[in-house]
Specification:
The chain is built from 9 helices and 6 strands. It has 230 residues and is mostly helical. This is Aminotransferase-like plant mobile domain-containing protein.
Length: 230
């Protein structure tokens, strides 16, 4: 069988804002087996793959590993890449308050460096969805350092990192006395909907979304599978 080439479409952030179905997610988490990294179901063992990440979320699954130094002065990093330095109570270690991001960067003024606001928006999306932690309102500034250069940031395999993070959190969730779970739970939900049609809500739209054209007037690729539920 030929290898399947996964070509993600443009990353449509709206798919990351879907309302989570906690009952559905909890049911699947309870069936996760950390020995095999699979869901044990009546139909057999199943799991979420890199192909699922690329198709459903549109995240790139090829490229450079998502790694970087954590030996950084985080206040200086914020000032340099965001143009703002958070107050001490908004930065706990290396974890930045996401409500602070919303308050400071919620409205785009006329005289602003657009890249700074773009970094703030991407950082908030990361903290709310694909790399969410159990705090619920903070995001690690390690991700901000990777957004220093957007061309380089686009070369990272964000999909691979997202899946690895989710696998780790599913592993932790199976430990006794664990009460919370984090990570890209929207991926668990979209995967369940795609594999078990009787659980799927009404599809809001199956029409292709027009993302416009590139610099050479060629149509941009279609968005991720998950946008049909937005």
């Amino acid at each position: 069988m030929d290898d399947l080439e996964i070509i993600p479409g443009p990353i449509d952030a709206s798919v990351l804002t879907l309302q989570l179905n906690w009952a559905l997610i909890t049911a699947f988490v309870e069936r996760w087996r950390r020995e095999t990294h699979t869901f044990h179901l009546p139909q057999g063992e199943m799991t979420i793959t890199l192909q699922d990440v690329g198709v459903m979320l549109g995240l790139p699954v090829d490229g450079q590993p998502v790694v970087g130094s954590t030996n950084i002065n985080w206040h200086i990093l914020c000032g340099k890449l965001l143009g703002r330095t958070p107050r001490p109570d908004k930065l706990k270690g290396a974890r930045l308050s996401m409500p602070w991001l919303s308050d400071v960067f919620g409205v785009l003024p006329d005289d602003v460096t657009v890249q700074q606001y773009a970094r703030a928006y991407i950082l908030e999306m990361i903290g709310l969805s694909i790399f969410a932690d159990k705090s619920g309102d903070r995001v690690h500034l390690h991700w901000l350092g990777l957004l220093r250069d957007f061309d380089i940031a686009g070369s990272y395999s964000w999909g691979s990192a997202t899946l690895a993070w989710l696998y780790r959190e599913l592993y932790r969730a199976t430990k006794p006395n664990t009460k919370d779970i984090c990570g890209a739970l929207i991926l668990v939900q979209l995967w369940a909907w795609s594999r078990f049609p009787h659980m799927t809500p009404d599809i809001l739209s199956i029409q292709p979304i027009d993302y416009g054209v590139d610099a050479t007037a060629q149509p941009l690729p279609q968005g991720p599978h998950g946008v049909r539920y937005v």
